[in-house]
Amino acid sequence: MITRISIHNYKSFHPVQPVPVALNPNQPVIFYGINGAGKSAIGEVIDRWWRPDNPLRHCRVETTGTGPFRCLVYNHEFVKRVIGEQEGMPGIFTLGEPDTQIDGQIRAVEDQVAEIEKELELLAANISTSEVQVANALTASQEKVWEAMLAHKGKVFNKLLEGCLKDKAKFHKELRAFQTDPGVALPTLSELEERLSDIKPGGVAKDSVTVDASELAVLEKSAAWSEPVQVSGGSRLARLIEKWGNSDWVSSGAAFAHDPECPFCQQELPGDFKEELGKLLGGDREAKVSVLSRSLKDYAAAVERIRGQVTTAEREPWVTEDDDFRAAWALLDAQMTSNLAAMERKLEHPSDPVAVAESNTANLNDAIKRINERISAFNARLGEPALEEARIKKEFWEVLCRDRLPHYEAYEAVSGPIEAQRALDAAAQTAAQERRRAAQQALNALKRRQTGADASVLAINRQLEAIGVTSFSIQRVDGEGVRYHLARPGVAQSTLQSLSEGEKTLISFLYFMELLRGSHDGNETVALDKTIVVIDDPISSLSANYIYDIAAMIHSTLLDGRSGLGVRQSIVLTHNLFFLHELLKLIGQGVGVDARQKCQLLRVVKDAHSQILPMAPSDLLNDYDALWLVLRDAKEGRVHSRVLPNTMRCILEHYFAFNNRQDDLDKALSEVAAADPTFRPLASFFKPLARFVSRGSHQDGVNVSVMDYGQFDTSYYIAKFRALFVAAGATPHFDARFPEARASEEAVAAQGAPGATAAPAPAAAAPRVTPPDSGATTSTPGLDPTAAPTR
Question: From CA 675, how far away is CA 665, in angstroms rounded?
Fold first, then answer.
């Protein structure tokens, strides 16, 4: 079923801006519009949509339900195809005389097909619902994932996002592929930013960091630091010094023992004292002290070398910025300082053991190793910037994916079960389509046993007889079997071209209605529940006698849901009010309510371009109402202002002629024209209007257009038109028909516009007019001056 039509750049429709038309798929649709408004364009767009060579693909026709659909359009193109230059009409294969047994089988299979169609519609609706639910969940997920893009778009990592900067769907899909195992450590964005900065053009390679503290351990592990250094036992002084435990004190004071007197007690020293003192402090003790002295010097030199290496290393910012390096170096430096102090104490007091701790160089070595690895990686990046950028991009997308992973998981949790159900529905749909195909094959086989082209001939001729046409009929062409020709009583040979325009309309329409039940192809199965019917002005050139018959035929065949053929959708377009009223009357039979409850009414109007508006049945009760509607449309800009003068003339003729007040009109025209003081274009608007009315026709060489529509002020002249009714004493009738005009007149007067109507003399109440006998003026009821507005 058609749910929406969009038209532009075709005939009278706007060349750029599409005009959307929403159709109710559950009701017949009726379009009304005057000739030239654009109705036929609507039918042609629908007609060509299903053709493979459709030249109007810029327009759109949207459908709902399971297809494919069969669309049949009755319009002037259809008439040309059926009654053109060729001789005869293509035959229609329809059901012939029914065979009871076969007919029963056909009905059973058709019921089976109908049930399958219902199943397919339900499955299609379920699949559509699933797709919408998944699409909504996907959209929500895409919005959340897109936030990661927005956070980095136009910033440091913008280059790594190229290709997805404007495409949410693509970004959402591609980012999902970068999921990593939760146990995999990923770099931080700061690290990636630093690496990306490293490979900028102009980068210089870095030197490795070297700090060698390996010799510290050998010196620190020496047992000499913890062993007491004793005096030599070869001196007679050794026993006393050991008893006192002051060998270090004696060693310090030995330098002062150079006088005959003791430097400590000032007593005269024995003659061999110096010799004995040398024996006491020399030998093994002296050797051990010498070792301690060399070890201290070596350790102090090592400390200085290490500190110098660290000073050199700290010229590299990565070293000073490394917290682990700083902590490790601070610890090692403190330990070395402490050990130097202990070694110095040991040298001062060799007999006292001291504790020299083993310095922790492992932490410093680990920190230096990591820094050098970083430097090596940096230097490698400088050598291969493209490969490094690719690695950075991969890791960057992995970081983004891990950050957005909860939103992917939420989407998959929602969409997973829905997709699973959709897959089941799709499988069921495929199975149902296969069952439908098999049933259709069986139905085709049964119908081929009943199909014939003679049934259509009989049906069309019966319709002609039913509406009183006996001057012609159709017959099959002998020997051809699938073509029809025109037959007239008593005429040996007749051609379709001998038909009048009205007869062509009539026979082509009956042919079209019969084609709904059949096909030009005898092997084709007609699916009425998939048939869309469009009928464009089927009463063109027809006598009024046939309007009721055509309306009744359309209603009974297409619009009546109880007895109609059961086609999927019906669309009717017309310009004829009487035909429209007949359709609405038939549609509303037995309802007792507005016909809009059983059909959709739309109106096609045109100003510069065609527009489509909703319509109520009360908008157009008769031709006279239609004239006032055109006037209101002109005021609202829905139709071109060039229709205004002629519409006003027709209203004046209808109203004053019907009420036998022509003299009052002539008098009012003269009065208002004489009172009009303006000198603007069309200031003499009332004088040509008076001539139009008095002559009753435009068909002469003098009565040509005097109006410049480019300067036409619609509101101004509607106010002037009202002034005619005021001057003629028919103000109540005008205000009842067109209450909007009073506002226009008041606006003109308030603005002091040129040509503002002078205050009219008090109008006498117009006499109440009794309409003529029923049937005399079927197109002009309701001209009572005091009648209420019909809109």
Answer: 15
